[in-house]
Amino acid sequence: MSESPAACEVIAEAGVNHNGREDLALALVEAAAASGADCVKFQTFDPDDLTAVSAPTAVYQAEAGAGASQKAMLEGLVLPYPALRRVARAAESARIAFLSTPFDRTSARFLVEDLGMERIKVGSGELTNLPLLLDLARLGRPILLSTGMATMEETRRALGVLAFARLADAGETPSLDAFDAALAAPEAAPVLAETVVMQCTTQYPAPHDQANLRVLDAYAALGVRPGYSDHTLGVDIALAAVARGAQAIEKHLTLSRDMEGPDHRASLEPDEMAALVAGTRRVSQALGSSVKRPQPAEIANMVVARRVLVAARAIRAGEVFSPDNLTAKRAGAGLEPGLYWALLGQAAAHDFAADEPIRS
Hints:
Elements: E1 9-15, H1 22-35, E2 39-44, H2 47-50, H3 59-63, H4 70-75, H5 81-93, E3 97-102, H6 105-114, E4 120-122, H7 130-137, E5 143-146, H8 152-167, H9 176-184, H10 189-193, E6 196-200, H11 215-221, E7 225-230, H12 236-244, E8 248-252, H13 270-287, H14 296-305, E9 308-311, E10 326-329, H15 340-343
Parallel strand pairs: 1-2, 1-8, 2-3, 4-5, 5-6, 6-7, 7-8
Antiparallel strand pairs: 9-10
């Protein structure tokens, strides 16, 4: 018998919508907790490590007023470690899980070793950065892996890195072949089972017709926990992902879409996040079980809505049941119509009035 699926986790992606301000970050924690989200997530990075001086901003970032330099933009969005520590404590006080995406080894160690972060979120841009991914996996925490811009081959290769980190002997040299072999090993199954692989379309906002939610089915077939990181406008595509089997969804949260910054325009405001959480809870409950059976709410209606075998006219004891005197009507309790053919040719045990249910 199939178990009912667990409720889908809702991750409120505060990201860099704090604009580098601790007070806004703390307000985002409060808003995420008030919405009912399960987790609030930020981003932790060192602009000098993440991007070269020559790196341009994305079109959507430039349109949001970020300027032409990606590094200059990121320098204004850093949340320093002391502030991030206070934000993590605020999340704990608000009884909402804290998560932050690290973009370098130092940030990852700070999040795990100093803040005690129990999981690691890997952003889509780092999926092919296999040296960093291997370092993150070796920290021994379950991974949430976003797959925006990726092919299935690249996704499988990244999963191979996670498996290699857990299964390889000490001193074994990492290589693409070693990653592929680790993924193919039967021992990789527990690693995959704890990994959330999130379908994602890396555009802000993302076109709804490019959400490609059927990829969730392919991820489930890999033995991982399928998830969805949503950048479309509104909440309907995220809710569709829940119905499609996503076990975690991630959606950007802002205090106001009118604020300056690269991600605000493609984010939900607090009341919208609350609506997403409520909708996710309803959809998760609606999924139920893969076992088809009458539900408690409908059992009482079965005797009213279903037909039973009845006498089409008065039948005398000893008369043979035939198409002329046997039919099916709504009449309360009685024999199911599927027994019609078995009764044909048998003699009635006693008299039946017209419309009286046939009983053995």
